[in-house]
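Researcher: Please generate the 3D structure of the following complex. Treat every line as part of one assembly.
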Amino acid sequence: MDIKEKLAILADAAKYDASCASSGSKRPGEKGRLGNTQGTGICHSYTPDGRCISLLKILLTNFCIFDCSYCINRISSDVKRAKFSVDDVVWLTIEFYKRNYIEGLFLSSGVIRSPDHTMEEMIAIAKKLRTEHKFGGYIHLKAVAGASEELVQKAGLWADRLSANIELPKQTDLDQLAPAKTHVQIETAMSSIQEKIVENRADKKTMKKVPLYAPGGQSTQMIVGATPSSDLDILATSSRLYDDYGLKRVYYSAFSPIPKGDPRLPLKQAPLVREHRLYQADWLLRFYGFSYQELLDPASPQLDLQLDPKTSWAVNHRAFFPVDVNKAPREHLLRIPGFGVRTVDKIIKTRTQRSLTLADLSKLKVSIDKARYFITTADHNSSVTLLDDEHLRARLKKTKIIQPTLFELMGVSDGGG
Amino acid sequence: MKGVRTVSFENGFKGWRNAARVLLAHKIEPSDLEWQERGKGHSSALLWGNEEIDWPAMAGSSPQLVLNVSRRWLEMAEAVSYHRNPEKWQLLYNLIWRLTYENPKLMDLSIDDQVQAFLSMEHGVRRDAHKAKAFVRFRKIESEEGDIYCAWHEPENPLLRYVAPFFKDRFSVMKWTILTPDESVHWDLKSLHWGPGCAQGQGPQNDSLEELWGCYYKSIFNPARVKIKAMKAEMPRKYWHTMPETRLIEELIFESDQRVEAMIRAAPPSAEAYLPESEDLVSLKTALPGCRACELCAKATQGVFGMGHPNAKLMLVGEQPGEVEDQTGLPFQGPAGQILDEALAEASIDRDTIYLTNAVKAYKHRIEGKRRIHEKPSPREVGTCKAWLKSELKAVRPEVVVCLGLTAALAVLGQSVRLMDVKNKVLEVGDNWKVIVTHHPAHILRIQDPDEKDLAREELETALKLARSLAGMTRNIT
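Model: Done. Output below.
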């Protein structure tokens, strides 16, 4: 099999992993070294699915001893199989990098022989790139489920980012679709990576020359819509993972039907808008001071698909409003529908010099149609009748709002999503 | 009052800074000046015949001036200086004037028109620079002095000097050249060399690696989620002509519907379509030979339907027929059937009172020499055949179902389980029937270790006894 054929199979098999970020790591260019990383990632191209190409995202092999239903590479699937050699992957990475196609490599793999054997081969690739080819670009390695703690920790010496996929929101989901995997096992990998990262940071404070250890941190991915688990389940899991393992990112991937799928899986693509709402909610958790319990509860465990989660929260908490744009503290401003973090920071600076009017807010690109129910400005009082209107939710749904794209939400500089 | 005078300078941002510092110190108001970078296009509002202001001569007599702008502002101003709009110099002077003499915190006032214009130009240049770093595509030229990587790129703004340090830092170990319509730059492993701009045709026209890159681009695209707007928002059309992979976009979008459709068509088949109208056991059994939902029946001697009491309280589900069953057309007849019969006897269950069937109705096997070797059915095949089992369950309506082995469990429970997790447990599936999972008799047959074998046999018997009592069946007295 020639390298092009392998590439076609092993890139195709890797595309169900949403993460492609090349951010969070700073490795300045050095004499004699090829490549650097700048902290903010770069998206080198975009495919018609709206996703970016930042890294060469491939599997080492799609042979696998596991039978996880949601995965195209499960042992029972009759897809075409291939395996790269260590040198194939090294060569492709270097040649692509030199033409400025990519920021680096994102290597994952099916499990061949054993998790440890697979992890070792992946580490060998990263090591060869760093040592023999003096490669200074980005390397993201997937921690193979079930690989020994020692190997997972070793991977961080060569990689900028490590990730272990939580895969599905609840253990019961895994039991159903991936009986060989457990959350405990996956989280053990996360915690051992976290431990090493913390240790490395502490070393940096006390010692002069400390080798880099996974400077880009760790991330994970959850598949949405393959099982009946609710958005509440999903956000509860994310929230716990952020707290417990200091994850940089949780990626949500709307379940996408896979060729020759397992009969237990849904045939339809989960709605992309659900994925979008989860990302919005995730943002609210991390940057807007919301807790997931504020957004969802067991009585209404799903995010509203037609209304963004912040507006939805506002409609359910009208007593909190109106908020006075010229006086309210930052954390209150952040809760106003249509107000982003950057807008809020600009408002806070501006209002020390001038009272803001509706026209000023429009200049700051606030969508007034949405926000006007919830705010007081120098020239505008939210009418109580409007705010109390029982049709407010419906009215807001109809409001034509220029929704920021997911990429704007995530920031161009993140280098992917 | 003097008329408007022209400030002439060169050397981009540096030149502007020198001039601005002098003019600011002399308190020359923005409205009295027209900025003109030498060798560049004229500002639209330029008045011909303006007197030129000799700012270098004024430098010596400059009054003391403490420039009250942050390093961050200077960085942003430098970015603005790469904007294609010639009004930028005027704008920068306006702002630095106001920052110095009117409001040192002017930049906090993001609703101010000039501040907004500044921020928007800065954002535009930064984005354009980011896209240059992302979208430059090198093509390799092999030569005797070593390889040179050459790119032609067309940024919106003339910002090659702004981004060249990035490429120098990243690709210091290779020789490279970037050509743009405004300017070009070459890195020879030691320093940057600047040259004139040029047209697209002057760059190298291909690189053999682009075939692999295209292959990657095609393969990483997921046709099930087409979001063309999101792609175009981040990769605007104006950049496409220098990016080889974009030639594939049209084809990928065109094919995506068909690919998704094909994927759905390739969706796992189901025996559902082959079920008879009346789903009683006799009609079902008669219809089975006509099933073509998969190829297993055609490859086997025959499909093997279930047998036993039509209203049994207890139903046993195995994996699939074996060699003997395939020949006789009846379930549990071979060596595994014997093990089962022994266990049934031990549990005091009469075979005539129960219903026996398999998750998959045909003998899946491979041929080695003259022998047929049993092969485990895949979850996909289990799923395909499941419609038959469901109909049998509906027709018989047992109280208890015993799954012999994990394949049966997958079919009955709709999920894969591990025996250690479910052994000795009574599982409720809806409010229809209780489910017990235990060993398949054929598995017991294959165990080598005699102790383990006995243990497994005992466990099978225990499961059957439990099932019998759950089903409320009386002991079979023989």
